């Protein structure tokens, strides 16, 4: 019996030599061999099967009744039915398995086929030869991450762990998500752009073009990214004033698509994390997650939620406007210092791809510097 539709089991030698490709141009391709945020841990319930799409691939994320989180390709290798439309079952001698809704084929959390119900007793067949592609998964700080390899059929084991975010302590206090019609590159650059705020986000409680002034911020390289080192918030950012005291904030970006702002007010703190997950080449999910032990957060939460939703809608609207121009594939002009972070992102992507193609350590190309711009 042929098993061409299944991902073949590879030898350790084959698994150690995945294929590599060169750096993709801006707005094309993805950062691979990397961890992508996929869901809040609280949203992955026991016995649940949920379909996600990451980099154009259907990914089932589930949790066994015993509490194990797992991820596998959401396509049954028999007749291509989505496994997420099935159910989690527990059969004697098999343990917990995902049962396909079409013909009942069952797969363990590691993707190996456990049973084919249509086989009769004298039809000997090694079901272990069939497997669904599985993805390494991590659950930490209340978040679930999936590892997307450069060679999905011959993946290497992850050689680094997902980022650990300072201040992500206790339960998540607020989360909002929105899908943008944008490649992740444009979404990242828009997220790190310091000059668009006065024109795109003109709420009375934030800032406007009439309150613009020159800023100078110090930046330094960090693991797989860079940080705007800890500083007092800008005087024209009114929202920070409700925290009281003397808040100090540090803003960090890390590949493949994480941006977080850690605000310290005395012994209290606020963490605002933005995760960018590429759904397809032209669609990116933006998830904003907040933690805080500051007493003001409870009072301000309804207003903060409205602000987050307003910001996402405004950014999404600008993305749609930008797409009107991008469909003509124009050359883009990047200027210093306001666009330096956009340049850094592209440098990081190129170095990431090259370092992995050359099987060497990643070398952060960013040097400590101070950037100046008006906003």
Overview in brief:
The protein is α+β, with helices and mostly antiparallel strands.
What do you see in this structure?
Residues 35-146 form the Rieske domain. GO terms for molecular function: dioxygenase activity. InterPro entries: Cholesterol_7-desaturase, Rieske_2Fe-2S, Rieske_2Fe-2S_sf. With 375 residues, the chain is α+β, with helices and mostly antiparallel strands. The protein has helices at 12-15, 184-192, 197-200, 295-326, 340-357; strands at residues 34-40, 49-54, 57-63, 69-73, 87-91, 95-99, 106-107, 113-115, 134-135, 137-140, 143-148, 174-180, 214-222, 225-231, 248-254, 258-265, 268-280, 283-292, 369-374. The strands form four sheets. An eight-stranded antiparallel β-sheet has the order 12-18-17-16-15-14-13-19, covered by helices on one side. Strands 2-3-4-9 form a four-stranded antiparallel β-sheet, with no helix packed on it. A four-stranded antiparallel β-sheet has the order 5-6-7-8, with no helix packed on it. The radius of gyration is 23 Å and the shape is globular. Mean pLDDT is 86; it is low at 1-20.
């Amino acid at each position: 019996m042929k098993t061409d539709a299944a991902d073949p089991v590879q030898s350790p030698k084959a698994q150690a030599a995945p294929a590599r490709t060169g750096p993709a141009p801006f707005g094309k391709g993805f950062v691979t061999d990397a961890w992508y945020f996929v869901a809040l841990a609280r949203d992955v319930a026991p016995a649940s099967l949920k379909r996600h799409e990451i980099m154009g691939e259907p990914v089932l994320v589930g949790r066994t009744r015993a509490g194990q989180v797992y991820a596998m390709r959401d396509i049954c290798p028999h007749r291509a039915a989505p496994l997420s439309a099935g159910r989690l079952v527990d059969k004697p001698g098999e343990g917990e398995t995902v049962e396909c809704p079409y013909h009942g084929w069952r797969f363990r959390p590691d993707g190996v086929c456990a049973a084919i119900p249509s086989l009769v007793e004298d039809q000997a067949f090694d079901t272990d030869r069939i497997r669904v592609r599985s993805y390494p998964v991590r659950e930490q700080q209340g978040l679930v991450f999936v590892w997307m390899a450069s060679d999905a059929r011959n993946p290497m084991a992850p050689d680094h762990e997902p980022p650990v975010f300072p201040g992500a302590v206790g339960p998540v206090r607020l989360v909002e998500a929105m899908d943008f019609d944008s490649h992740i590159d444009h979404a990242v650059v828009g997220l790190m752009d310091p000059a668009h705020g006065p024109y795109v986000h003109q709420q009375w409680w934030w800032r406007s073009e009439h309150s613009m002034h020159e800023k100078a911020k110090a930046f330094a390289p960090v693991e797989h990214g860079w940080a705007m080192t800890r500083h007092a918030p800008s005087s024209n950012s009114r929202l920070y004033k409700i925290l009281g005291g003397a808040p100090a904030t540090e803003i960090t970006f890390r590949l493949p698509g994480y941006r977080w702002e850690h605000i310290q007010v005395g012994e209290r703190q606020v963490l605002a994390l933005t995760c960018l997950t590429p759904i397809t080449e032209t669609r990116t999910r933006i998830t904003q997650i907040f933690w805080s032990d500051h007493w003001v957060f409870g009072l301000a939460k309804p207003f903060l939620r409205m602000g987050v939703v307003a910001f996402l809608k405004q950014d999404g609207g600008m993305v749609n406007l930008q797409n009107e121009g991008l469909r003509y594939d124009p050359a883009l002009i990047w200027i210093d210092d306001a666009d330096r972070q956009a340049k850094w992102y592209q440098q990081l992507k190129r170095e990431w791809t090259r370092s992995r193609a050359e099987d060497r350590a990643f070398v952060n190309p960013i040097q400590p510097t101070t950037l100046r711009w008006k906003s």
